[in-house]
Structure formats: C-alpha cells, structure tokens
C-alpha cells in the first residue's frame, strides 16, 4: 500500500484524491490546505487525517506527496519533500521561474526521489495513443506538428494578473505536448498575440489569442494556437504530419447523437472543459505515478520536462515582447 | 462515332443528352417527343434533328436508342427498336407488368440487340466502389444488407395515382440495389407500409413510408426502408455486413463546410435530389452503355435485371396487401 | 443512507457493486452468491457481509436488493423480496416466461415495492439524450425507428442452449429500445433469421443473424437487426426518422485518433463490448434506481416494461418458427 | 455570345476550354500556343481556329483572352490585350515580380479592361460557402485563420528551379486565401521552412515544408502550413475561428465509402490533386468571369489581389532568408 499525503485540497487536489480512490494499492492518508475548511471537507469525505503541510511531509505514514497548492508554494514544498525523501507528484507549472525550477531539480536529483511533473495531457487516452503510434513509426519521420487549444471562456482578470500570462499558464501545456510529439528540442520560438476576446486582458498586460511557431535543429516545425474562447466547448486537438502520413486526435464530444434537419447535420459540442475532457487523463497520470514509485522506475514527465516547457513559455513571452524570434 | 436517337426530351432525356455531350465518340443525331416544343428545344440546344419516334428508330443514322419516354410507351418502343436492330438504353421501369417485360425480353433476345436497364444507382461512384470491394471479398461473405432511401418530398398526388405505387416507382431502385449487393436472388419478400407523410397518399391507395425484408435461400437478409420525406436532403445510404466486416456508403453533402457554435458542430444537408446526387452516376451509366455497344459486350444491368426488380416490387405490393410474406 | 443487498457476485453483480461505490448516500451492506468464493471475494473488496440469499433479503440492514443471479432464480428472489417489502433492482430478463413475469408483477404490485428492470441501454448517455430530444419533439412525430446491435463475437454454444435464444437473450434489449423510442406499443412482429456466423448455433436450434420488423397501430415502423459478430467492436446504433428530421446515435470509438495514409483515413474500432460501452449507463441506471427509492418515485423501466419486451421476444421467436407475422 | 481567345493550350488551358464548353453564351473562337501540336489538338477538339498569339489578341472575333501561358509571358500578353481593349482572365501568378505586376496593373487600369486573377480556390464551392458565411457574420469577428495545403508529391526539381520557390509557386494560393478570409491586409509575415521531403529541393535553394504566420493591424492571426507531400491525397483545408464560433472546410474524399474491420473504420483518401479537387472551382471561376464581362461588373479577384498575394510571397521568402519577421 502506497500512502499519499495530499497538499492542496482545492479543485485539482480533489481530482487527484478521486483518482487515488479509484486505484488499488494506494490511499490518501493525510491532507493539508491553508484553508482549514477545505482540508476538513476533503479529509472527512475520503477518510484521511488533516495535518499542517510541513508535518504532513515528514509523516512516517506518507510515502509520496501530491502537490496541488498555489504555484508560488511549490518551491518550498518540493525542497521539504525532497529532504524528507518522499516521492513527489507536482502540478504544473513547477514554478514560474526557470532558475527556481533548476534549484528544485537539484534538490530532487540530490535526494534521489521520484518526481512527476503533472502534464496531464500526456495521459489523455487520445494523445497517448497518438504519441505511441508516432514513436512506433506509423507515419514515418515527424515533419509538422499542429497543436490547437482553446478554453471555453477566459478566467477572471484577477487570475490573469497573477498567472504569468497565457504562455506560462495556458500554452505551457502545448509546449509540453510539442516536445512530447516532436521528440526533439525546439531551438527557436516565435510568438504573436493579441487581446481579441476581452480588452481588459490586454490592459492587464496579457494576450488572449496567440500563435507560436517552434522549429528544431533538424527542421521540424510546430505550429501552436491558443484562445481563451471557444463557444463550442473545450477545443483540444493535435495533428502530426510525417513522411508516411498523418495522425490526429479529434475532440471528445458530449455524446454521439446527431440530428438532421433543414439546416444539415448537427452533433453535440465538445466536452465542456478540462475536468470532463481529461477525466481519464487524471486517473491515468496518478496510476502511472503510483506504478513508477512502486516499481522504482523513473516517472515521466520529469522535472526536466517541467523546466523545458517553462523555458519555452519564457521564450514565447520574450518573442511577443520583442517581436523577434528567440533562440534557445 | 456512335449515333444515338433520343426518345423523350423531358427532364431525364435532357440528363442523358448532357451525358452524351460529355463523352467522346458518341453524339445524339435525332430526338423525338410527343411534345413538339420539348423536342425542338433540346434539338436546337444540342444540334440534333427532330423526328417522329418510329421514324427515328428506323433511321440509318441512329445506332442506338435511349428511351426516356413515359413508362407505358416503353413496350412498343422496345419492340420497334429490337425489330430495327438498334441497341437499347431504357429507363426504369421497363414496364409496369412483369409479363410485358418478359415479352420485351423475348423480343430483345431474339433480335440479339444490346439492352441496358437504366438503374442509375449502380453507377454512382460510391455504390459502385462499395459493390466492387464487396465482390472482391473485402468483408467476406455477405450476411445483412441495409438500404435506406428517402426522397426530400413527395411527388404530386397525380403522379402517385399512376406511378404503380411506392414499391414500383421508388423502392424498385432499392430492389435492384439489393440484388446488386446480395449477389443471390431473394426468395421471400415481406413488406409493411403506412401513409404518414400525407394522408392523401393513403387515400390514393398508396403508402409513403415503408419497410421491406428480403431473404435469400442461403439465409442472407436485406432490410430496406423508404420514405417520401427527408428534411435534410435526399437520403441515399447502403450498409453491408459481411463475415469480416462492414462496408457502407454515406450521403454526399452539399459541401464540406462545418460550423461550430454553442449548439455543437453542423455540416451541410445532403445533396438535394437525384439530379445532383446522381450526376456522376448518369454520366457513368451512359459511358458504360456506349462502351458496351462499341465493344460488343453485353451491357449491365440487363433486361432480366429490370424484370427481377419488377417482380420484387410486385411481391412487395402483394405482401403489403395480404399482410403475409410472399415467396418468389 | 440506502443499504443494498447484492444477490449474485458474478460479472454483472460486480458492475453494480462498482456503481454503488461511486454514488453518495448508498452502500452495499451484504452480498450473496451460490459460489462462496465469488461472494467472499466481492465482499472483502467492498467491505460487505456475506449472507445466504434468503437471509440477506430479510435483513434489517438491507433496504433494497439488486438481483444479478441466473435468470431462473429471479422468480423466487423477487417474490421473497416483495414479501419482505424491499425495493428491487432486477437484471433483465425478469424471467424467461411471460406468465411468470406476470406472477412477479402481481407480487410486486401487491407488496407496493419499487421495481426497476435493468435495461441498461436506456441509461446510456447517447440513447438517453436521443430519447429526451425525441420526446421533446425535436424531429416531430416518429415514423421509422432503426436499431442495430451486433456483438463482437458469439457466446459459447453452452450459453446459446440455455439463453432462450437470440430474441430473448440479445434482441430483448432492442425490443425495449424500440418501445422506448416508439412510445407506442407494437401490434405486429415479423422475424427472419439464419445461422451464418456459426453452424453450431443453428444446430443448437438458434440463429445468430436476425432481422425483425415491428409495426404499431398508427403505422409507425421499427426495423431491428442483430448479429453475433462484428469484427470492428460492439456495434450499437439507433436511428429515428420523424416528420421534421432524423436523430441518430453513433458508436463510441476506442479513442478519437485518426491516421491518414495511402489507403485513406482510419479511426479506431468501436469500444469492444458492453462493459466498456455501457460503463456510464450502468452507473446512471443505479443512480436513478437509488434516487427513485430515496424519493419514493416509481423507477423506470418498470416490471411491465420487462414483461412487454419479453412478449415481443416470444412473438419474434414464434414468427421465426412459423414464417408469418405475429399479432400482439 | 462572348468570344474567347485562349492563350496557352497546355493542361490549364485545356481545363479552361472545358469550362467554357459547359457554359451558355460563351465560346472559344481561337487558340494560340508556342507548341503548334498543342494548339492544333485543342483547336480541333473544340472547333476553334489556331492563331499566333499577337494576332489572336487583336482579332475582331475575340472579346476576351484567357492567359494560361508560362508566367514569364504574362507581362507582354497582358499589355497587348489591355492595349487591344480585351477583357483578361489571367492565370496566377500574374508575374514573378511585384513591380512588373504594378506595370500590368497600370496598363489594365488605363485601358479600363476587365481583369480577373485566376485564384481558383476562391471559387471552390466549399471555400466560397465558408467565406460567404464568414462575411455574413455567422461566427462573428475573425480572430484566427488556419490554412493547410499539402500537395500529394513534389514537382520535378527542374520545375522547382524556375518556379520562384514554394512561397511564390504554392503558398501564393494560401496567401490569397488568407486575404480572402481575413478581410484585412496582413502587416507582418514570419516564415520558417525546411527541405524534409527531398534533400534535392534544399540543394536547389528551396524548401518543401514551410509554415508562415501573418498578423494584421487589428491583431488577427493567420497560420499557414505547406508541404510538397501528402500520402493520403491533396490536403486542402481551411479553419477560421471567430468571436462566435468556428467555420472549417474539410477535404473532399474520393468517395463516401467506409469499411470497418478489426483495425477500425476507414474512409477513402482525399481527391488526388487539383484537377479533381478544383473541378467545380475552375468551372465557377470561368462562369463568374464571363458573367462579369457580360454585365460590365468588375471581376474578382482583381489584379490588385494578384499583386498583394505576390507581395506576401516575396515577404515570406525574405523572412525565411533573414530569419526575422518582415513588415509590409
């Protein structure tokens, strides 16, 4: 039995608690949250203890921690958990600063603890299937990767102001997906962006509509587009062109029903947002973390993957600011 | 150069004239129609002579006749053309009476002239592709055939009264398609039907909504459904299940555009009716007739195919009337 | 908290136990199975007691029973549970004999206990969505219903011999779906069938490929087809034509990935079988049962629904035997 | 009757001759080609005279010229035709040099003759339908346009060497499509590209795989990708995201047949190349030219559209060369 200590009892912490509940051989023994009510509510629902974060991390009945607290707390929690020799499952982004992620990486490496950066989309059954087939050579060598992500609606302006901006908060998933699919590091980033959805986002110094072009040393190309708005559900698509063909993963719709009438044939919207769309991905990512810890294998994506996605986000932000491509 | 005499200058005659115009090595030299205006209009458009039907049939500059006149005139025209030794392309149905079709068959056989029964759907690129792959064994042995045909809207009641009824006028295409796909003669027909679209159709003694089940000696099953109404365009689909898989042909839509919004994803309606949907089929059927006549091969579908489809329609009408399955 | 006693710990009993585990306000307190090992295994996994069936039914800590035992035991268990005043969730078919179902119906009605016949497909998110929209009038009045069910592969011959045959064991789901969608009782059943998948099924007196036509008093038509074989996954589709358009529910595929190459565009097979395809349906049907019991509402589908589906299956079997349509 | 003089009897000239043949009120009276055999073959097929180009242009029985000769001859022919007061239908690109296109523009404007730049894709029924709905506001304000074009296989290296490169020869269609859909001029172009399909293309100084990002003054974004290879047919797609939703045009497949088997569901490849895919577009573009000339309306796309697409291609080539975005 693997004993999990859950740090952060908000929405994402609850998702991870539910994933643990559906797996054999693992349980949440203790939870922590700066908000006592949140900690108590989750603890009573799943039969876990409530502890203060630092105490939880050093508890003997905690083998691994799941970090789902605000991003600015990750740094300290990772250092504490590494020092305590606990395996670490950490929400993305690891930190807003690449340098601070490097510090965490050092701490984790020196402590020799397992670490998984929770890029959930790698575990989506559709994207995972696509990537496995890509790696197996089904469409030959990768030439162009196209990634599109559109949220159903923008977050509150208050969130925008502290999120680090669209590239670090939203497109970071796509940067990780790009690396996952390209299997070669990007060497150049070019970004454009605008505030077309809500002028207030522009006034807050961010963009809500953006496109990025990545290139690799061997000439592979990746096009990414993001928007904070999609009226037809959470739009999450990937398309990869290779020397022998194309692989793409379409959206998951709310249901398979189609209606036909005078205006044509209509299917349901895409599943609304990440909790629905990535339900299986969240379950799979926890399963793979648990499996890695139990078998002694190295979890993936690693803290290095977390660092490299952050570096791409930083480069995109710089490209947008300077108007020029940024070399990595 | 193959010289065609066109009998009937109405809508379907004009379709065939256009098909001839798009083919090399063939031309329409003369046309005939009981309505002089119709004959003159088409003749001047395509540069052909206008003649009286009997004279046209025996003309030296007519190698083959295309019969697109009202059904009750086919019998005489076929006999005249056979007597004159002309190749015959005849619209379906050959005749309303199976016995009279047998008479025609005798005349055609004795004269040794080429004869094609114009079941246009066999030449639709989709259905033709499906049937070729079926014959090539792509899904193994046929087990269940499902055919669905729905017209966009019912014809005038005046047409209903003289058409021979839904089974002989509309479903006859599906009976031919069933034989084309089953590759084994049906031995039993069971039909049900109702007047759900327009009560006046029921008062005229016909049905506008019907379903038929065919079975063959080896146990293959075919389900057909027809309706005189489809709000979303001309619905024309075929699905075949075999021992190794399934082949189906979907509708052709007006275009490939899809719009996404709050209610989901919407594509265009199906192409409106037979002139659009079967444009390529009409062209291909004429090309195949011309090719057969020019090479001396036997055209297909034959007059026997025309007879057998009519026998199935008769059996379906009898089944509907008696409420019992009819053996063939 | 609603306390459930689970009768039958085989595959379907385990499915229901899992559904209960995912719902709030309900738990399994006791389980029973003729096989002690099966009962013990499930009990230890979910923290329930093991009891003998009759004792379980009369237990004070059991408010409702879930009957997932072999069909021939349903009759006695239903009578016992009704006598004990317990709410009853019963797997389909309620019984192989319509007369015995009527006996059960009397017992249940006289005891005034809640009863749900577990036709799981009514709770599939796709079919449920389609039926709600149909009832809401989205496509006007129903005219033709088409239902297709194909299992990935046939069950063992030993099962075939005791299952009551394809109409009572497999197509019974489609008969219930037909009633669910037609919203009008069929008055006539016509069936055809063959043993095309495996001759041994024919030797066992059953068919593995079948088609049924239902008609209602107002002239609505339903076409059903079944096969024990589908190489591309569990094929489960419904299509309804109404006066204003068409509603259909497509298969759920294993994933949304599509690959393109020289032979075209390929998507994944359909989800393999009922445990995957109807995972959400099983969860929803238990949720609706629990909700009905807790609120005092009448669960649906009722025991009468179970009876009427069985009557349609009996009629289909008789039609196949006699070769004639059977009136209801 | 509008009399056309056809300049150039190669593949594209034959396409335009066929389009003219399918239209009422227009005919080809004379053809010219540097290759006498090509001119004679086409002339005899369509019943036209063969003339030398300059003589053809000044012929009294020529109202309009269709220019389908090699690009480097366009400049002189346009000047001659403008001087002769003939309406001009000119294949793209108008010229390889933007300055020379400006010269042509001056000549055409001063002569006051009608001029259509033959960007055939604007007349594709799918893209035309999409653009009309976009203009009608169906998805609100345009935010992101995504255009993908992939040829089935690369042209000969000899062609690559004289074509002006991928941006001027292939992506020029997409630049025009971008302008057609954005309805606002791009102000910046950023291009990346590689030779991944064939190293010989790289050695010839060109790329075969490329991606371009366009931005407009109001912040609209357009992503274009091109490749000289697509194993699954000619890939031609457009997707537009607006404030209220998304419009996209999918590929046209060879047929609507789908086969299902153990590996899933497979449809046909996309139509092979431009002659099949844009058959309707070629017919429509000629019809619109003829209609404009006959009614005295200004044809579209104009010579200015030809110029602006060329300027975008030049900017893309410069961006690729310099590695930096290029302002317009």
TrEMBL record, chains A, B, C, D:
<dbReference type="InterPro" id="IPR030827">
    <property type="entry name" value="Myo_inos_IolG"/>
</dbReference>
<dbReference type="InterPro" id="IPR000683">
    <property type="entry name" value="Gfo/Idh/MocA-like_OxRdtase_N"/>
</dbReference>
<keyword id="KW-0560">Oxidoreductase</keyword>
<dbReference type="InterPro" id="IPR055170">
    <property type="entry name" value="GFO_IDH_MocA-like_dom"/>
</dbReference>
<dbReference type="GO" id="GO:0000166">
    <property type="term" value="F:nucleotide binding"/>
</dbReference>
<dbReference type="GO" id="GO:0050112">
    <property type="term" value="F:inositol 2-dehydrogenase (NAD+) activity"/>
</dbReference>
<dbReference type="Pfam" id="PF01408">
    <property type="entry name" value="GFO_IDH_MocA"/>
</dbReference>
<protein>
    <submittedName>
        <fullName>Inositol 2-dehydrogenase IdhA</fullName>
        <ecNumber>1.1.1.18</ecNumber>
    </submittedName>
</protein>
<dbReference type="Pfam" id="PF22725">
    <property type="entry name" value="GFO_IDH_MocA_C3"/>
</dbReference>
<feature type="domain" description="GFO/IDH/MocA-like oxidoreductase">
    <location>
        <begin position="127"/>
        <end position="248"/>
    </location>
</feature>
<feature type="domain" description="Gfo/Idh/MocA-like oxidoreductase N-terminal">
    <location>
        <begin position="2"/>
        <end position="116"/>
    </location>
</feature>
<comment type="similarity">
    <text>Belongs to the Gfo/Idh/MocA family.</text>
</comment>
<dbReference type="InterPro" id="IPR036291">
    <property type="entry name" value="NAD(P)-bd_dom_sf"/>
</dbReference>
